[in-house]
Amino acid sequence: MRGGILGRLAGAVADARGILFPWVPVFLGAGIGFWFALPVEPGLATYLVAGGLVLLMAGLWRFGPEAAQPLWVAVACLTLGGIVAGVRAHLVAAPVLEFRYYGPIEGRIVALDRSQSDALRLTLDNVQLSEVAPRRIPARVRIALQVAPRFAPAPGQWVQITAHLAPPGDPVEPGGFDFRRVAWFQRLGAIGYSRHPLLMLAPPGRGEQGLNRLRAALSAGIQARIRGDPGAFAAGVMTGDRSGFSRAAIEDLRASSLAHLLAISGMHMAFLIGFVFALIRGGLALVPHIALRLNTKKVAAALSLPVAIFYLLLSGANVATERACIMICVMLGAVLLDRQALSLRSVAISATILLCLRPETLLTPGFQMSFAATTALVAGFGALHSALTGGLVPRWALPVLTLVLSSALAGIATAPFAAAHFNRIADYGLLANVLTVPVMGMVVMPAGAIAALLAPFGLADLPLMVMGWGARWILYVSHMVAGLDGAVTPVPAPGPLALPLIALGGIGMAVGRRWFRLPGVLAIALGLGVWTQAERPALLISPDGLLVGLYGPQGRALSAARGAGFAAQNWLENDGDLVSQPIAAKREGFTGPASERRFYLGEWSGVHLRGKGAEEKLPAACAANNLVITAAQIATPPEGCIVIDLGQLRRSGGIALSPDGDRLRLQPARDTTRIWHGKHAQTMAARWLDRPVRLLAKGQ
């Protein structure tokens, strides 16, 4: 029987020769994911062993049995993924601020965006900090302006401001979003805010930040002609500048599953390059002398390539845009080489290139959702090709059916990733997309392209007006759909295995042949089952000790209505709870004044001390409770209770506590020591997880 199974497996692999390349980025991504999941940073010896393993696999592939070649390639790709991720992490290494800083900051503006509180944010490079050694100054810092500047900030300007800075934050709970890791790969070494005016030291130098300045100028020009959120939407889809968008409009787009229309991705690139390709080819066809002597299809493809690259650079080159540009370039290259332009192979090539260049993107929602949607569309329409072109569907119904199918396939493929990253599902997303995607493709993007062509001649007003009409319709639909009852269903965060299982199952169904598909369905079912069984922590403590969240029958109750807002928002969203912090603070679970909030956690009685005088209240609080949490740093904690103070939180990051009989199980958010944590990062996980804290009797 074993021989029969192995024989069938070998036969299936042999039959799949020529269609196995789409698995290359899968194994490459698995290696990258494994590298990011490591609890400690690999050393040089690890990379040398990994490099030797790759060379060994290459030798086996060249001289080993032919039937085993796919296995050697898979192992090599898996190993290369870890090597690529490690090399990239060390190549982008830059100083990270190791302390809190308040004082003057000088630098050059390289990017502008908006914070979650709708404040204008500046990203600066060439940073100078007062009385800080140059080797300790971050390469980039990001500052939220709480006072409106007296001039219009623009890329390339040299500015000065007095601001608070701090290192990028750790996850606010175990397994949560790790902003410190994201900031490391952006070379962002500090974040902060300012309540002081922004001063301009010097205007942009000649040729300095040229693309960023062009982007800002185009965005300002569009918004000067199209006012309000429609203008900000038009500027966003053409230049990637979303700093003018209101928070309410963004929330409507998210609630209606239309946020992808604002983030420049494959759809925008396809609409724009498709329009440019058709315009060039159609224009050349009108000239018989050229049309009869040149392959206009290849000429259009060759001229569309630089347009795609320019759009990528102009839009800021985010992950989704990079993926789209790479895939567009692969497709146009296929046209030039007389190959099939749209296939799973082209998707795999673009994924492989992007993972090799920027392996950290594997963990981002942009990468996951864009490739999930593209793979589903290519595989889905490939499977339905005969039905759509064989006369089974009337010709007049094909456009409508294609639109509905594409929206449904992309929505189903991206739904698990959107739910995992954003903790919500837009229930009417299909309706919103059917009503807006045609307008995006036939009105907004073509009008934007025509406006760009006519702008040098001063004739852009009419196409921009048409573009504004399309943008207003999209925002109207998003607002209408977001206001429907049940427009958004909150979803709790999945466990660490749920999303990889779902992704692997989806890839197996899309890429695999015959016997791959049933295991793919089982993997998706298993991933969904694991998701439903994920448990949320009973008690969460914010990294600064200012907030405690207790999970109860009504949801998570918070110890304070204000403070540690980022932690509160993340906790509630990961619970699948979309209420605000003030509402969660009114739930049952905590009693007592704001400075001394008491609670029960299983058999444990606890108190959260806030404000001044926490150290003076500590002895009495410890005598009356088993657990004391405080934002103060306690030099000598009293005996008789467990004290979690600011000193311990600085070593562990946020903390999750769960009762286990007469014990408490503690899990720190900072449970790894990786390169992005800095040389001073420490962890308490090993000591406290292996030896859970026992319940101590009062007065002991």
UniProtKB/TrEMBL annotation:
Where does this protein come from, organism-wise? Gemmobacter caeni
Q: Which residues cross the membrane?
A: 20-38, 44-64, 71-91, 261-287, 299-320, 369-390, 396-418, 430-459, 497-516
> Which ranges carry the DUF4131 domain?
44-195
Q: What is this protein called?
A: Competence protein ComEC
Q: Give the location in the cell.
A: Cell membrane
Superkingdom of the source species: Bacteria
Give the main location: membrane
Q: What's in the keyword line of the UniProt record?
A: Cell membrane, Membrane, Transmembrane, Transmembrane helix
Record NCBIfam families: ComEC_N-term
Which Pfam families is this protein grouped with? Competence (PF03772), DUF4131 (PF13567)
* PANTHER family in UniProt: DNA INTERNALIZATION/COMPETENCE PROTEIN COMEC/REC2, RECOMBINATION PROTEIN 2
Report how it sits in the membrane: Multi-pass membrane protein
Domain (ComEC/Rec2-related protein): give its ranges.
238-511
GO CC, any one term: plasma membrane
